[in-house]
Amino acid sequence: VMDRSGSMGMSAGAGLTKIDLANTGAARAVELLGDLDAVSVHAVDTVAHAVVELAQVGPNRSQITESVRRVTSGGGGIYVYQGLLAGWEELQKAKSGTKHLILFADANDSPQSDGYIELIAKMRDEGATVSVIGLGTESDRYATVLKDIATKGGGRFFFNVDANELPAIFAQETVSVARSAFIKDLTATQSTPGWAEIGARTPEWPSKISGYNLSYLRPGATASLLTVDEYQAPLVAAWSRGAGRVAAVSFPLGGPYSEAIREWPGYGDFIQTLSRWLGGEDAPAGLALRPVIEGERLTLDLLYDESWTGRMAQTPPVAALAEMGRTGQSVTKPLTWEKIEPGRFRATTLLLPDVMVRGAVRIGAISLPFGPLTISSSAEWNFDLTRRRELQQLSVRSGGRERLDLATIWNAPRMAMWRSVRNGLLIAWVVLFLVDAGLTRLGISLVPRRKPLPVRGST
Question: Which of 3, 71, 401, 434 can bridge 78 by disulfide, Cβ–Cβ 3.0-4.6 Å?
């Protein structure tokens, strides 16, 4: 529930208004929600305007964020009660385990809040919570009311004068709510065949757990254990990530709400089996993969000894490279091997700047992963240790020194270097003195003598 009153149209610097920054914060909150979460957005002045009616985030994320970013300021102050009522009507439609309302309002311009106490009490009775983000300080006119709303709503309250920090506060509150979806009830469990991908023998799972984090199975993941309740939530799941492995356990393995798990006889075997599976197999003896980046070129050297010669002939190595761009889309492409010499294969490819890549080499049933790797689009960010040492040596040899603080680089010019010429002048004077004395003693003159002029009348 967002304040769109007239005060939100004021400038916040850098060509942005307060409502622009609030919109950015709300959009960031939507981006942090899971695909199966639901969200609604209302912009409120004297009435509540539905910007986004309650909708699942996953298939509608881009449309929701676009709609939120277009909210503009209106007139008058925010009627807090109308906003809370509109938000509660949307929350009543939600079927999620966690129902939470975030109220954003100007702490100095939030009139018409009468009736909020009874409304929030009803929301709390039905399991909903309320947090407040107030633009201003706790000494502002309506700060006490906003703080009371958050206190009675069982949520958190934030007051901040700098509108530029609104996006970060929205994100912080969203993450806090998402992490609070913890079911504290004793819940029955049921197993699935998914554990066969991890261990050879299915464990005797605990019949009940004391509590768990509510989550949803991501695409591509396989669940091994589920809850027997209205959520059918995964408790143990695993999936592949490139050439690596990932697992998630939703119930506590220690501490509060882990009583049933710690009494489970198969607890130790479960932890050991899952840890070994995540660790993967070590590279077999006689086989090694060496990735090297030179400029924009990636070179993969696959080295093997004589024990692998037969297997290499039967099942040549296969390499794949996955590129992850700024859009988040992963593109996989194969690499071509070249046999350099006995015991060595080589594959090369050019990398794109600022694109992260990872890959794996497969030889039969064995995988050798590598990465993540990336190169920078700017030479300034290419930290080559050899080049750095060259620059350091140049500085020392030329009489300079290393300067790393660019802010003060011009405040300390290089010191003037003075060298005395006294010894040189003294030597030159002695040499000239000896030459002059020698010429005088020998009667040698370096100045040519002038012939005398003839006298008139003489013959």
Answer: 3
